[in-house]
Structure formats: C-alpha cells, structure tokens
C-alpha cells in the first residue's frame, strides 16, 4: 500500500480564526477515527497569519477518496470552509519512503 499526504494551503478570513480552529477540531475528531487516517497537522504562517497549512497522511489514495465522500466529512468541513477565502489550494502527494531505498 502506498501512503499519501494531502496538503491544503488556506487563507482564513480576518476575525474567523477561532471559528476556523474550532470547526477544524470537529473535522479532526472524526478523521482520527476514520479507517486509513495516519496523522494530521495544522500550521499557521509566521509571515502572514491569514495563511494556514493543513496536512494529513493516509494509508492510501483509496482511504482519502472514502474520507472525502463520507457524509460526515461533507457536513463537518462546511463550517470550516465558511471561514476561508476562495483562494485555497489542495493536492494529494504520494509519500516516498527514502529510508527503504
């Protein structure tokens, strides 16, 4: 199985930071119990506090697809996305295990 990492670059609306973090916590609480979820990080830019980086690691691309189409995910990300500007970017990357080479 090939692990993948989801990277999201986000810009949170001014004054919505606390709402964003609270709604993200709801997403995270569900994600950690979802099959295939391996870990998650939320980071805030020191250069531009409106910019955030969200990463999650998954056992496989199939795990990510199942999570993205799960009804809980859809309902949980709605309040989080309401805190964001539209100029967000998301991509999925295969994780290379350099130690195994």
TrEMBL record:
<dbReference type="Pfam" id="PF03992">
    <property type="entry name" value="ABM"/>
</dbReference>
<dbReference type="InterPro" id="IPR011008">
    <property type="entry name" value="Dimeric_a/b-barrel"/>
</dbReference>
<protein>
    <submittedName>
        <fullName>WhiE I-like protein</fullName>
    </submittedName>
</protein>
<feature type="domain" description="ABM">
    <location>
        <begin position="4"/>
        <end position="93"/>
    </location>
</feature>
<dbReference type="InterPro" id="IPR007138">
    <property type="entry name" value="ABM_dom"/>
</dbReference>
